[in-house]
Write a structure and sequence with these properties.
The chain is mainly beta and 167 residues long. 0% of the residues lie in helices and 24% in strands. It has no helices and 9 strands.
Length: 167
């Protein structure tokens, strides 16, 4: 598993719906810093469909392997360590996301979740120009027919707990 990536471009008004996530993480949860996350069946999860955006929590601020923070040391055994505090996903910042190939955007338009796209770093932070549940607002310059893997700036919101986009 890759280490993830800090995708924050600008801190604007960082907020979280679940400040400490140990209650919604179990030994099967594997997420990376920079992943867009949802709450599914009471656990943090990666979205699998655009409709999952209704439960979006934001961008994960740390990497978790098997529900724990990975060890900073390389050993022959996975030496993941338990943490006192597992910080939750953040919304309200401008983050780097990966735009779906061929999509066009202008500044200020909403973007939608595209769980089929991952950055080269392996981070699950794909967005697209069309969908049913907006997750943020595009804040870069106009793009016409984006190349695959184009990194763009998006003010990320949250939709969980009411399916209303919040910043």
């Amino acid at each position: 598993m890759s280490k993830g990536k800090n995708t924050v471009i600008r801190e604007i008004s960082p907020k979280t719906l679940i400040p400490e996530v140990s209650a919604v993480v179990d030994a099967t949860v594997n997420v990376m810093q920079g992943d867009l996350l949802i709450l599914a069946a009471g656990l943090l999860a990666l979205p699998v469909a655009e409709a999952d955006a209704a439960d979006l929590l934001g961008v994960m601020s740390m990497t978790l392997v098997d529900g724990k923070i990975p060890s900073p040391y390389v050993t022959e055994v996975d030496a993941s360590r338990a943490a006192d505090v597992l910080n939750g996903p953040i919304y309200g910042n401008t983050n780097s996301c990966v735009l779906k190939a061929g999509d066009s955007l202008t500044p200020g338009v909403v973007v939608y979740l595209n769980p089929g796209v991952q950055a080269l770093s392996g981070v699950s932070n794909g967005v697209q120009a069309a969908g049913t549940k907006p997750i943020g607002v595009y804040s870069g310059k106009a793009i016409t027919a984006a190349a695959g893997g184009s990194a763009i700036e998006v003010l990320i919101g949250a939709r969980a707990f009411g399916d209303i986009l919040k910043f």
